[in-house]
Design brief:
Strand order of the largest sheet: 2-3-1-4
Distance between the termini: 10 Å
Helix content: 40-55%
Shape: globular
Bound molecules: guanosine-5'-diphosphate, magnesium ion
Number of helices: 9
Largest sheet: 4 strands, antiparallel
Strand content: 15-25%
Structural class: alpha+beta
């Protein structure tokens, strides 16, 4: 039908997801990528990256007045991260559900933080909190040429 050739704006929603330095060191990269892949989202961008301090500050600029901000910047720049752009219908909210609450001790079992972390300052993963922030963060962390516009052939088996 109408939707076969052209994908709707809603199914092209994107979010920025990042395995933080503790997740990389603990060997959780594959596990985390798998959860998003198996859910049915399209991986639009993926790279390993040592985050410079100024980018960490920009990424978390909404939190700059928080007492934990210096620790947060130190945490995010303490080792390489894995940057991802994921795409799909409702991907921003869905990724937040897959990730779980900020405090891993409050995160539900079955979520990434609920299953794999115990401390708010070592909560292994980031996910954008709104569609606007998803766009902003993908723009911060990825260059245009790093985002791949491949077609997920499984789409008719994932979307009605
Ligand atoms: P998120 O969107 O669930 O990642 O949470 P926030 O945007 O509120 O905070 C960003 C990140 O800052 C969190 O993922 C934590 O790593 C860190 N963070 C948030 N609150 C605290 C806190 O109270 N203490 C410490 N040490 N880190 C925090
Ligand atoms: Mg946040």
């Amino acid at each position: 039908g109408e939707h076969c050739g052209r994908r709707s704006a809603q199914s092209r929603e994107q979010t920025y997801v990042m395995v933080k330095p503790d997740g990389v060191q603990r060997g959780l990269v594959g596990e985390i990528i798998s959860r998003f892949e198996r859910k049915g989202f399209r991986l639009a961008g993926l790279k390993m990256f040592q985050c410079p301090k100024d980018l960490a500050k920009k990424h978390y600029e909404e939190l700059q007045e928080k007492p934990f901000f210096p620790k947060l910047v130190k945490y995010i720049t303490s080792g390489p991260v894995v940057c991802m752009a994921w795409e799909g219908p409702g991907v921003v909210a869905s990724a937040r559900k897959l990730i779980g609450s900020t405090n891993p001790l409050q995160a539900e079992p079955g979520t990434i933080r609920g299953d794999l972390a115990v401390a708010v300052g070592r909560n292994v993963i980031h996910g954008s909190d709104s569609v606007a922030n998803g766009e902003r963060e993908i723009g911060l962390w990825f260059g245009e040429a790093e985002l791949c516009k491949w077609h997920l052939e499984l789409t008719p088996w994932l979307l009605e």
